[in-house]
Amino acid sequence: MTCEAQEKNGATVVSLSGEIDLQTSPDVRRFLLKSLSQGKSLVVDMSAVGYIDSSGIASLVEAYQTARKMGLRFALAQVGPSAMRVFQLARLDRVFTIFPSVDAALQDHA
Amino acid sequence: MTCEAQEKNGATVVSLSGEIDLQTSPDVRRFLLKSLSQGKSLVVDMSAVGYIDSSGIASLVEAYQTARKMGLRFALAQVGPSAMRVFQLARLDRVFTIFPSVDAALQDHA
Amino acid sequence: MTTDPLSSTEPLFALRVPARPDRLRLVRAAVGEAAMLCGVGSSWVGDLVLAVDEACQNVIRHAYCGRADGDMVIEMRREADRLEVRLVDFAPRVDPSLVKPRNLTDLRPGGLGTYFIRILMDDVEFCEPPEGAGNCLRMTKRIE
Amino acid sequence: MTTDPLSSTEPLFALRVPARPDRLRLVRAAVGEAAMLCGVGSSWVGDLVLAVDEACQNVIRHAYCGRADGDMVIEMRREADRLEVRLVDFAPRVDPSLVKPRNLTDLRPGGLGTYFIRILMDDVEFCEPPEGAGNCLRMTKRIE
Ligand SMILES: Nc1ncnc2c1ncn2[C@@H]1O[C@H](COP(=O)(O)OP(=O)(O)O)[C@@H](O)[C@H]1O
Ligand SMILES: Nc1ncnc2c1ncn2[C@@H]1O[C@H](COP(=O)(O)OP(=O)(O)O)[C@@H](O)[C@H]1O
Most buried of A4, A69, B73, D97, CB within 10 angstroms? Predict the structure, then answer.
């Protein structure tokens, strides 16, 4: 599991890669909250996430709620089929803003 | 594990894909011997083989020996690092003719 | 050796691991490979893997309360048209009535594990654990 | 929970499966994931996985002579700077002097398994099997 952040069009793009589970979700949570502390919109690139469980969902939900409290936008991009399945099970596909690509998410932020 | 054969430049090109182990090597063996019964040179595309064990090696050695008895050429192409490691351990990298690509193998056959 | 080994009732595997988060990848790999032996599709496998992972997480976090010195055993078998998973731990006995999902409409981090298990599996129940064990969660999923 | 759980001696997993070819993928997946927990590189992991797979094949083909009704147990633990694998079967006792590789210069199909095990592992020996078991092959590999 790796987390990487870069600035793009005034937003922070975080790319998550690997499997987000009880072992790795604390790192994801910390990384997302630290990225939000930059005070910019956050786009999470999910394309390389091969697995996510309820603890990974919890990390995303916490980042989403923190962003809202800070008045920042929070979006997911390029969610693969296995993560999308989990979002649908949790009915979070209607809560999270999900874009087909990072670029589409950035255009919407701009 | 899948095995596929096609004719190319008068040779038979067999593409193996997946993991060749004690479960799947009997199928590989049968497929290679059946392909040789066409009476043409054989090129085995190994690019999609993620794993091979001693039983898989045995299937290749048997096909190689059968080809020689029939006076047919037998070559391997695009052997990935994990299969190459096993060939080296078995000192078969010096026995098998190994080409970087199927095309290179076919040019040599022609 | 039979030609279609997995058409009926037979054990797939039993896996004992320390009940720790870093062992969950290994558990998922074993469950996924075993499910594939039954000729099911990859989304069916993904659903089963998630349910078992969530059940293991609950053993780690709730049954053992984060203590890192207990084991868990995951046992999988094919029973005719179902896959059966038993998850055994050696923690104190759990009150099954306390194991329940939260209300999904209440958006907050956490509380999804038991919900995932219930919707992804066809049957879920605590059963009598083997001698010396603490709890045994039995889950089955119909093979499609 | 400790921060570096795998710096010293600890059990990784114990996996019991029917001794059949179709269970080898599952065994390899478990061995590979467990080895990764020790921070080794992927070629080290690949070598270990091959050695364990070959040992399991020999249990299936030789110890059980192709009978499909016996189990095998693969146990992995970290012992300081080594990974230790024990492979236990419930077959009749094997004469260790008969378990040996063929001459490699003699090109023929077969006879490579024990050779792979010996060159890929640092130590290989039959040890006293647990009560009720048939054979126990103990293999260790130094962690690099
Ligand atoms: N194996 C278990 N042992 C004890 N309590 C459990 C177990 N599994 C679940 N629970 C209880 O059920 C509740 C709901 O679990 P779950 O839906 O997985 O969400 P979460 O674990 O995030 O709270 C837990 O908070 C816990 O109180
Ligand atoms: N677990 C075992 N039980 C009994 N005999 C074994 C076992 N492992 C290996 N042997 C013996 O050692 C020989 C060499 O084994 P191996 O190098 O794996 O090659 P192969 O299995 O292809 O013969 C086998 O033919 C068999 O006689």
Answer: B73
